[in-house]
Every structure is written in C-alpha cells, then in structure tokens.
C-alpha cells in the first residue's frame, strides 16, 4: 500500500548527489522557508516509485510527527487517461457539454487578444511609449493564463468514494447525500447540473470560464478578475490621458488605429464595470464565508441574519507555499487538503493509518506530543 516513506539521502554512484536528490533537497528547503514547516532534512518524505518493493519487504516509513509538523502525500491516484471531460475517470478536466459556455469562453480570448493587438499597434505607430505597451501585453498574458487555468482545473469535484472527515463525524452523526451523484455532500458544496458533479465550496458556475468556481480553482478565478480589471483600468487611463491632455502631434493616435481604440474603449468600460462587480462579490464571499449560491438561497428565504459561516482565510485560497506564488496561476498547496475540501478519502486515510501503525510497531515514533497536544497528520 502506498504510504509516505523514509530513506536516508545518499550520494550517487560517484559519491556526488544525484539530480533527483538535489531536487528533493531544494524542494524541502523551499517548503521550509516558505511556510515554516518543520521538515527533517534526513528524511525522504515522498513515495519512492523506484523502490524495489517485495511482498516480504515494504518501504520503510518515517517517524510519527508531532503537532505542527506535516508530511507530504505524493501518491497520485488520479486517472492517467488522455481524455477530456468532467467525469471522475477523465484525465483532463474540461467542460465540453455546454456549447454556450464554450462560445463565451472563446469570446474572452478573442476580446483579450483584440485589445492586446490594438495596444501593440499603438506602440508600433508611436501612439504610446513602448514600456506602456509591454506592461499591458504582460497583463493580458497573465489574465489569459489565469483564464485557461480556471477553465481546465477541477474546481473541487467530490469523488464517489468521498467520506466525511473525522471532525464532521464527531460533530454530526448524520450527513447530507447528493441525490444526483449518490455520494456524500460536503458542507457548502452544490451539485452543478452543467458539470454534472458536486463541487466543494462551490461559488457559482461561470459561463465565461465554462467551468464552476469552487475551492480548488477560486485562486485562479480571482487572479483572472484582478488582471482583467487592471488591464481595463490601465488602458482607460492612458486613453483618457490622450483624449483630454494630448496637445501635439507626438502623442496623437494614428488614424488607422483610432477606430480600434474607440471600440476598445467601450470594451474596457464594460470589462471594468463587470470585473469590479465580480471582485466585490468574491470579496464579500471571502469575508462572510457565504458563496454566491448560498447567499441567493438565504436572501430568498430571508435567513441571512441566521448565518453562522466563518470567513474564509486567504491560506485556503492561495495556499501556504509562499507569497511569491500568489500572483501566478499555479495550484495552491493547502496545509490540510481534507479540511479545505470538506471531505476525506478512504484511500488516503488507509495510507495514513497504515503509516501510523507500522511506524509505531517499528519503534519509529519520534518526539511524543506534549500534554494537550494531539498528533496532527495534515496532507500536503
């Protein structure tokens, strides 16, 4: 059974560290400096797929960690098929069943590309300084990268084998089930009829993304809104400056480009207003812990005053891998994946239980927890 492993770090055949060992060392140092996790550099915390395991000899396991320490569960139980869809057996997440959503998502790329081409032409015709055109193009590229990441990332779909977390079982013996998926339905999750999946901490289904916005891709969606809002505000500023303050021919736009600029101005005004509204909507959801769907339901039943949800911390959106990862569309690393998603998996719990039992039986229990301190096994 796949569990976290422990191997001593040794050199290669020539006595020098191998490339994989060097990468592991760099990874540990980055994780330790970014989030302050206590990681013993003498331990190999990842599953070694090259280990020649026999029925009589399994991979050795690391020590039991005290509270505040983490282990990295790198076991990959995702499908490897090169198939597109939203089903659990699909290898690449992509909603292809909604034609309207596909058209709207494609339209986003066309409009962003149109604006980038227009600004590039302004730069070529010396209507604006090259540095301004370069900045706008970079912002457009980041916005499109975040859009692609939001559209092609699993928003947090609940697998069929999902089970309640231990804290949920202790607090409430009965749990919700999805009538469509026939699976456990975590708190704040909803079933999306377009994606045909239950999504953890689902905010809404966005046709412009052609995907749901949930716990796993909220960061990418928020970054897309920020970059798009910045692009719109940025272009409106230098368009307005040219219209109101340009008094000589050096800053006048070329006649061939001025019609493109006029159309882009209306596009930027619409994008600015829309993204401003969505940013306020997402910010409200983070501050109150109430998603868009839940908020609409509470308003319809006049139960907003009875809400007891907690605010969503930023680490549950951007992860704990360091502030330098926040501006980029890379998947966040959560300190406790099960807590963020609202469910656990029997396969992961089995790996964790097997790890703890074998580690204790082998006498590898490191520092015991202090009084009042429980052993914490957070998934990384």
* Rg (CA only): 25 Å
Largest sheet: 2 strands, parallel
Range of strand content:
5-15%
SSE-based structural type: mainly alpha
Oligomer: single chain
Cα-to-Cα separation, first versus last residue: 18 Å
Overall geometry comes to: elongated
Q: Give, in order, the helices and strands.
A: HEEEHHHEEEEHHHHHHE
Q: What topology emerges from the helices and strands here?
A:
Elements: H1 19-35, E1 70-71, E2 84-85, E3 92-93, H2 99-124, H3 130-151, H4 166-171, E4 190-192, E5 197-199, E6 204-206, E7 211-213, H5 218-245, H6 255-288, H7 292-301, H8 315-318, H9 337-341, H10 346-361, E8 378-379
Parallel strand pairs: 1-8, 2-3
Antiparallel strand pairs: 4-5, 6-7
Architecture overview:
- The protein has 380 residues and is mostly helical.
- The chain has ten helices and eight strands.
- It has helices spanning 19-35, 99-124, 130-151, 166-171, 218-245, 255-288, 292-301, 315-318, 337-341, 346-361, and strands at 70-71, 84-85, 92-93, 190-192, 197-199, 204-206, 211-213, 378-379.
- The strands form four sheets. A two-stranded parallel ribbon has the order 1-8. Strands 2-3 form a two-stranded parallel sheet. It has a two-stranded antiparallel sheet with strand order 4-5.
- A hairpin with a 4-residue loop joins strand 6 (204-206) and strand 7 (211-213).
- The radius of gyration is 25 Å and the shape is elongated.
- The two termini are 18 Å apart.
- The model is unreliable at 1-20, 41-47 and 365-380 (pLDDT under 50).
């Amino acid at each position: 059974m796949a569990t976290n492993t422990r191997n001593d770090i040794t050199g290669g055949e020539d006595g020098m560290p191998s490339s994989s060992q060097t990468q592991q060392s760099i990874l540990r140092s980055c994780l330790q400096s970014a989030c302050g996790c206590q990681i013993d550099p003498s331990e190999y915390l990842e599953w070694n797929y090259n280990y020649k395991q026999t029925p009589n000899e399994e991979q050795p396991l690391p020590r039991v960690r005290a509270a505040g320490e983490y282990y990295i569960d790198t076991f990959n139980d995702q499908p490897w098929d090169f198939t597109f869809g939203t089903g659990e057996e699909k290898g690449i997440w992509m909603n292809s069943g909604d034609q309207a959503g596909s058209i709207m998502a494609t339209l986003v790329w066309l409009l962003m590309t149109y604006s980038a081409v227009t600004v590039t032409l302004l730069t070529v015709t010396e209507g604006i300084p090259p540095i301004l055109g370069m900045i706008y193009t970079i912002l457009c590229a980041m916005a499109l990268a975040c859009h692609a990441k939001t559209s092609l990332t699993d928003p947090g779909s609940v697998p069929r084998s999902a089970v309640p977390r231990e804290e949920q079982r202790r607090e409430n013996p009965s749990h919700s089930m999805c009538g469509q998926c026939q699976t456990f339905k975590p708190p704040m999750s909803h079933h999306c009829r377009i994606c045909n999946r239950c999504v953890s901490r689902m905010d809404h289904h966005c046709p412009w993304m052609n995907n749901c916005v949930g716990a796993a891709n909220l960061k990418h969606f928020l970054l897309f809104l920020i970059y798009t809002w910045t692009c719109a505000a940025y272009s409106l500023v230098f368009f307005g400056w040219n219209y109101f303050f340009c008094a000589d021919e050096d800053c006048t736009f070329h006649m061939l480009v001025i019609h493109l600029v006029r159309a882009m101005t209306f596009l930027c005004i619409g994008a600015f207003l829309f993204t401003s509204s969505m940013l306020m909507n997402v910010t409200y959801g983070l501050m109150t812990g109430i998603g868009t769907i839940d908020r609409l339901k509470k308003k319809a039943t006049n139960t907003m005053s009875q809400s007891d949800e907690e605010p969503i911390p930023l680490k549950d959106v951007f992860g704990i891998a360091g502030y330098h990862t926040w501006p980029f569309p890379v998947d966040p690393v959560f300190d406790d994946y099960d807590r963020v998603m609202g469910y656990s998996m029997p396969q992961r719990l089995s790996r964790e239980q097997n790890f703890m039992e074998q580690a204790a039986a082998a006498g590898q229990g490191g520092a015991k927890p202090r009084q009042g301190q429980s052993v914490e096994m957070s998934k990384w």
